[in-house]
Amino acid sequence: MSLRIATIAAAIVLLASQTVAESYPGDPSYEAGGYSVKLMKMERSGEDLSDYSFTYVLRSKKSGEQKTLVIRDETSSIESIRLGEGSSLVFFGEVGRSAHDVNIFDVATGKLRDSFLCYGCQMSPSGKYLLFKHWYPRFAERFLTSDVLLIYDLSSTPAANRIGGSVETDAVGHPVFPQDAVGHPVFPQKNVAAKSVHSLAAENDTDLDSISGAGFVWGKNDSSVLFVNIRESGLWLVTVDLSKGISAVQLKETKIDFRTVVKDGDANNVVGVSPIEIQVNDGSVTIRLAPTSRLKASEINVVP
């Protein structure tokens, strides 16, 4: 009997450890730039199965000083932790396995500097910028799901990372794509309520922006970022020039002619043409495509 109880107990422990591992992907610790970050505890913070709070200890390797960091919001798991410019320690969390909940702490004070919801957030190679797609509610109207790409400067203040300079707004980041969104705050619910002309796409617009899963390619010193945008009207190679700063971004869009890679030669039908990787060459860009029955080649070369 005792053996059976012990076996059941061991199985419960194993199941619990597997559940934790599945619910909290990635290493809950991080070391960089003279600092170490370790997860001390996770505990329930609400009734929902995804409601947790996370307590981390930030330690300076030089002085040995420790600070306690607590994340208690919509975050259901921590994907990764990165040290960026401006003494920024960025926690990339997941919300319901779809959206990102980003928390930015100041390593000098241990205080939470900023936080926001978004999709597909990533840090630039130098650690200066965060690049992300705007957040919209899960059951938002279709026109509100048209992608808007925003950028956050980790070397600047939270107020400077909001158009208008007020930390009271939820419109976090500076839009860099599409062109119509540049220079305007983007937050679906509030913009639509105000009937703003800058509320992403128009309600009757069916040709929405959808940034492909091929990812982003950064230029030297984070001076530019390259990606593929998919619309019903075709595929576009987009270059965002950041060399003059995020307040003076310049966009260049090159329509991609994919007639040579589809068997039917129809460049007005994007179905089955799904970019999965971008490679920058000397003077051209190679875009790899997910193989489908409609394709006769898996790569397209584009001259931006």
Describe what this molecule looks like in 3D:
By secondary structure, this protein is mainly beta. The protein is built from 2 helices and 19 strands. It has helices at 2-23, 188-193, and strands spanning 29-32, 35-44, 52-60, 66-71, 77-84, 88-95, 99-106, 112-123, 129-133, 149-153, 174-177, 210-211, 217-218, 224-231, 234-241, 250-256, 275-280, 285-289, 299-302. Strands 5-6-7-8-9-10-11 form a 7-stranded antiparallel β-sheet, with no helix packed on it. Strands 12, 13, 14, 15 and 16 form a 5-stranded antiparallel β-sheet that branches. It has a 4-stranded antiparallel β-sheet with strand order 1-2-3-4, with no helix packed on it. β6 (88-95) and β7 (99-106) form a beta hairpin. The longest helix has 22 residues, at 2-23. Residues 1-26 and 188-202 have low confidence and may be disordered.
Sum up the structure in keywords.
2 helices; globular; 7-stranded antiparallel beta sheet; 304 residues; disordered N terminus; mainly beta; 5-stranded antiparallel beta sheet
